[in-house]
Amino acid sequence: MNHFLILSALLFSLGVYAILSRRNAIMVLMGIELILNAANINFIAFSRYSTGTLDGQIVAIFVIILAAAEVAIALAIVLNIYQTFNTVNVDEINQLKD
With 43 labelled, which of 20, 52, 60, 94 sits at a CA distance of 20 to 30 A? Predict the structure, then answer.
């Protein structure tokens, strides 16, 4: 189980780094996906080693479905922002407040 937790912590750390350091909106979305995948690994590992039931797998599938919906909506928003501002850099899009 330690290997799964180490892998999950590594993916989570990479996701947080991608969110905090990148200016590109697509990279921020990829960081969010890494964080969700780290949570899925934890769900499945704890389900496998603690109870032996399929509860973790069911929750992981639910998270994957939500992540797919989130990506579809977020990419539509990013494309709309690109058409309006001709950039996808998060720092340069401060006119959304107006």
Answer: 20
For residue 41, give Cα distances in angstroms to 21, 25, 98: 24, 25, 41
Amino acid at 14: L
| Long-range contact pairs involving 90-93 (C-beta distance under 8 Å, separation at least 24) | 90/22, 90/23, 90/24, 90/25, 90/28, 91/23, 92/23
Identify the pLDDT of residue 86: 83
**Residue-range definition of the domain harbouring residue 40:** 2-89
In a domain, 98, yes or no: no
Residues paired with residue 24 on neighbouring β-strands, in sequence order = 89
Separation CA 68–CA 73 (nearest Å): 9
Q: Please, what sign has the CA dihedral across residues 83, 85, 90, 93? A: negative
| Number of separate helices (H) and strands (E) present in the chain | 3, 0
